[in-house]
From TrEMBL:
Keywords: Coiled coil, Metal-binding, Phosphoprotein, Repeat, Transferase, Ubl conjugation pathway, Zinc, Zinc-finger. The lineage of its organism: Eukaryota, Metazoa, Chordata, Craniata, Vertebrata. Pfam families: Filamin, NHL, zf-B_box, zf-RING_UBOX. Its EC number is 2.3.2.27. It comes from Cyprinus carpio (Common carp). GO terms for molecular function: ubiquitin protein ligase activity; zinc ion binding. Residues 16-67 form the RING-type domain. This is RING-type E3 ubiquitin transferase. Belongs to the TRIM/RBCC family. Residues 88-115 form a coiled coil. Residues 357-402 are annotated as: Disordered.
Amino acid sequence: ITSPVVRQIDKQFLMCSICLEHYLNPKVLPCLHTFCERCLQNYIPPHISVSFWRPLQVMEFYCESCETAMCLECTEGEHREHVTVPLRDVLEQHKAALKNQLDAIRNRLPQLTAAIELVNEISKQLTDRKNEAVTEISNTFEELEKALHQRKTALITDLENICSTKQKVLQTQLNALLQGKENIQSNCSFTEQALNHGSPTEVLLVQKQMGERMGALARHAFPEQPHENSHLDCQVETEGLRRSIQNLGVLLTTSTVGHTSVATGEGLRHAVVGQNTTVTVTTKDKDGELVKTGNAALRAQISGADGTVTVTDITDNKNGTYEIGYTLRSEGEFSFSILLYGQPVRGSPFRLRAVKPCDAPQSPDDVKRRVKSPGGGGGGGGHVRQKAVRRPSSMYSTTKKKENPIEDELIYRVGTRGRERGEFSNLQGISTTSNGRIVVADSNNQCIQVFSNDGQFKLKFGVRGRSPGQLQRPTGIAVDMNGDIIVADYDNKWLSIFSPDGKFKNKIGAGRLMGPKGVALDKNGHIITADNKACCVFIFQSNGKLVTKFGAKGTSERQFAGPHFVAINNKNEIVVTDFHNHSVKVYNADGEFLFKFGSHGEGNGQFNAPTGVAVDGNGNIIVADWGNSRIQVFDSSGSFLSYINTTADPLYGPQGLALTSDGHVAVADSGNHCFKVYRYLQ
């Protein structure tokens, strides 16, 4: 019953027995004509016209336009221009429709029951794991308390033993001294008695005996110097232990769920026998938002039709993305299952087909490499590009006391999240010009923005696209001696060159580069770019001709794991930040390895994924420490000097770095969608 009049009557008034019978009769849908005159006059609001009323009319017709039942009078009244049909003709149709809807929602009951069971099971597992963790924490700290008690007992026991040994030595010496004193006093007393009170005969009789005894006592070497000392201290270094205890234990969790997380890569569907293939899993939470931390329970399995299972290798990038690598040994059809916490990611399981190398199709990029750059193609890299800023736990560890800060300060910041002038979305590279300009690669907005040294907006250019002159994902940026702007375009896989006013001039590296990130220029005018995906460094002439390239994926001196940015020092050496190897590596102009510095951690001189890099006039190397959200300064040999004080306006995932023409440090603060300029004391 949907009539507002009926609802009003139903809620506020009583009906006569006849009207109530019609009201409750499912075969008679009420309208104004189904009520008696008294009920109608008493209970129908005055603004409703009752001029067409005729009591106790049965609902026999149906208006298809209004989707409502009516009596004969209504078909000649307000519904006279509508299509009406006998109610009985549409009754079965509507009953069938309702039954279909009923069946549809009833069919969801098993799904909801299964979902309820699953959620209850996860809730139970969560509670169980919490209880297990509480037990583990309790046991750990009980063991620590036991160990502390044991150490306390051992220290006290050792203390007692040492004290007892020393006391024995001192007591032996004391006994000897007391005995000597007693002997001297006894002889002195006896001799004085004889001298004062003895007869001459008695004195003569004892003179020889007492003289010998006193002579012996006079010559005797008594232990007058201490045979021991009172030094007995307990030194317990507690500061380091206290810090360790305060930071003891890490709680690992993630909001990742399977049904919103996605897997990408050609390796989900196609593979070549004997060749290592990788796919990327990007984790998301229940709302589809990117999860920015690692440690998720990810499992992958590739099963053949004959039941064989291929081993997979999973790499946690610690930023919410994961790489799954595998190598198939036979051709055929496979089922590729990817599970997060036991639940499939979107689209899993995938149908995977493996073919022999001779049957593998040639990609357009392969053809380009052979035609345009024989022997110069970049090797395959497996690093996954960062699409979102993660926040490692160290970002929030602001209680660590850092030593020797350079007393610099924030001069200004420019930007907020947006698409307008002076607004950014995940800015990446930053560069400066000799005439006082700051140039920023606004990555997710697919444009370049130019500012003055004091932060005033000057220029914005760039059009999204994959054609020459367009930008798809600008990351690195550099400015040459002529003022031309070189942009590393990660997704377009080339470097674009623009005039100082933003006019496109040329592109280089197409067909060679796989994912250029940072870019710089050396003293010879060569363009150096770090290829994040290929895990190598390319050196081009300004006309695009390849000079050389070096590097491959790995952990050795000449290998990289996701190189990010490059800089050139005053010796024309190439400085590269090696993101996943948590280090900075230095090479000569020909790509020969010289040295590296840094390791994984939060201490001075350590990194948690370094990104931007710049070199000042004294050869000092300035590095953006992305995961630790700070900027560190090293000398030309890689020894830690200090860090730039950014506490006034903390960084949130810094990317590119550059030195302005007036000697300040400009940093692309990616997570805060702005760039900042700090005073820097060289």
